[in-house]
Amino acid sequence: MNQVSVDSVYRLSPTHRLQWEAAQNSDVLLYPEGMVTLNQSASEILKHCDGSRSVQELVQELERKFSARDLTQEVISFLEAALERGWIKRAENASGQ
Fold this sequence. Notes:
single chain, alpha+beta, Outer Surface Protein A, domain 3, three-stranded antiparallel sheet, 3 helices, 6 strands
């Protein structure tokens, strides 16, 4: 299993695209082999995977947006699953790591 840390930075895989699908009434993740319908939590996390923020910053934004607390482990668990499925890729952060 891939380990995701709070300092990691992620972006969508270049072969995947996140978009709203009216027919599904939800965001979907499109890729060459098909489509995944996302729940709101998955969609919100993936929207923040743009290569510009660390997992810690992503969590802070989600906690602020949804007036929630202690989302770190849930976000990391989802990102680990998304990484294993090839939905996201590790991006270089501002320090070049």
